[in-house]
Amino acid sequence: MSVKRIGVLTSGGDAPGMNAAVRAVVRTCLYHGIEVYGIRRGWNGLIHGDVQKMDASSVSRTINRGGTILYTARSKEFMTEEGQLRAVSTCKFLGLDSIVAIGGDGTFRGARALSKYGINVVCIPGTIDNDICCTNYCIGFDTAANTAIECIDKLRDTMQSHERCSVVEVMGRNAGFLAMYVGLAVGATAVLVPEKEIDFEKDVIEKLRQARLHGFTHYMIVVAEGAGQATDIAQKIRDSIDLDPRVTVLGHIQRGGSPTGRDRVNATKMGYLAVELLLAGKTNRIVCTHNGQYTDVDIDEGLEMKKDIQEMEIDLLAAMTGYHS
Predict the structure, then answer these.
(1) At a CB cut-off of 8 Å and minimum separation 6, what does 267 contact?
(2) Catalytic residues
(3) What domains sit in the chain, N to C, each tagged with a CATH number?
(4) Which residues contact 61 (CB under 8 A, 6 or more apart)?
(5) Of the N and C termini of the chain, which has fewer Cβ atoms inside 10 Å?
(6) pLDDT tens by residue, 256-305
(7) Cβ contacts of 84 within 8 Å, gap of 6 or more
(8) Helix or strand or coil: residue 14?
(9) How far is 247 from 155, CA to CA, in rounded Å?
């Protein structure tokens, strides 16, 4: 397979480290003498030919920037066959023989659809949710987790001063990986994730009660958005034990900020590998990490995989509260 011109795009929700991945794709292409074009606004940009030629200066001083310099958008048009055919037409007209797509599950499904029309595609997992099942790590997770941890640490200071309960909602859509990681890092009293069925009396009320009996006077409940709204959790606590929790929804602040060193390095390695895969004649692949190694899997295979919260983390959370749940 001869690769002469590669297009790179970011799609879906932005994640810190996406710019580092774009930078790596661009500079690896230039290293191999391949033309590279940035596609703005994801699949929608590919449909409408919103592209720009990239060179070394295009990605200069971007490794430390959050967000995505290529912008991102969700495209309902690309979900249709007509929209996909328009994207294919753009590729053919511009001479783009390969696409590197950076994003989450929806981005990968879009890439798979495009590959069925003969366009070479390689995907890079970029989502703060860390819910791409074929990889242990997704670009943006570390930064988002550290942002949430920093916010909760500051929140804990005032909660402790006033001897209050705080209910904090973190992002993660229908996955609890971010909430569990953050909950363990901040020493939460309880963590609610969608992967584990909630027994409210046991998982929340009894933990609060036991914490008070063990001498604690402030409490931190971390809730994944897919496990329920923080306001509803707070109201249930209020109704059950006459405690008046304060609610904080961290929201999109978790998406922003300069990426951590871990996200910058992982993104750089993944961007480099994406181009190397295309040069090796591979297509329809997802770059991923497994047991500390960088590798790749077929998109179809990767989208069928499942990933769940580790039982060890659930047991660890119970042990760290200092009492039997």
Answers:
(1) 17, 18, 19, 20, 21, 24, 124, 126, 139, 259
(2) 129
(3) 5-140+259-304 (3.40.50.450), 142-255 (3.40.50.460)
(4) none
(5) N
(6) 999 999 999 999 999 999 999 999 999 999 999 998 899 999 999 999 99
(7) 78, 113, 114, 117
(8) coil
(9) 11
